[in-house]
Amino acid sequence: MEIKCPATNAHLATLLTGTMPERYITQCLWQLACTGRTWCDLVCYDNRLPEPLRLHVIRIERDKHRIDEVEAMVEEFLAEVDATIERLRLVAGGEKAGVGCYGAYRRCCVSGR
Question: What is the C-alpha separation between 64 and 62, in angstroms, rounded?
Fold first, then answer.
């Protein structure tokens, strides 16, 4: 479950459109990628509104194609982080770092499936 408590105007937009911002859906997909679950409930809540308008729930189903896209972006980002850390280490006169963020991610999340 992913719970969001946005500003009232954003919550009202969610109620009126029946959809959540794409960034929240991506967060749920990443949860599904990490946990192996098949769905996640995305909850939007605002206690400033009358009771019938406070809660909105959307079930996000696993989407392998989109999860693969997110994983590719994560791998690219972590490889960039590792390369930057390695360059900074060399500039500072240090030794090679070995396995960094990207290597640890590959060991833990990708190859562990």
Answer: 6
Q: How far from the centroid of its chain's Cα atoms is residue 17's Cα?
A: 22
User: CB under 8 Å to 30, separation ≥6 — which residues?
Assistant: 67, 70, 74
37: left (phi over 0), alpha (psi -120 to 50) or beta: beta
Supply 51's token pair.
């009771």
pLDDT in tens, 9-62: 999 999 999 999 999 999 999 999 999 999 999 999 999 999 999 999 999 999
- The pTM of the full predicted model, rounded to 2 decimals, is 0.71
Q: Quick one: CA dihedral 16, 18, 22, 23, positive or negative?
A: positive
Classify residue 51 by its DSSP letter: G
CA angle, corner 64, sides to 58 and 67, nearest 5?
80
> What are the tens digits of pLDDT across the range 74-111?
999 999 998 998 888 888 877 665 556 655 555 555 54
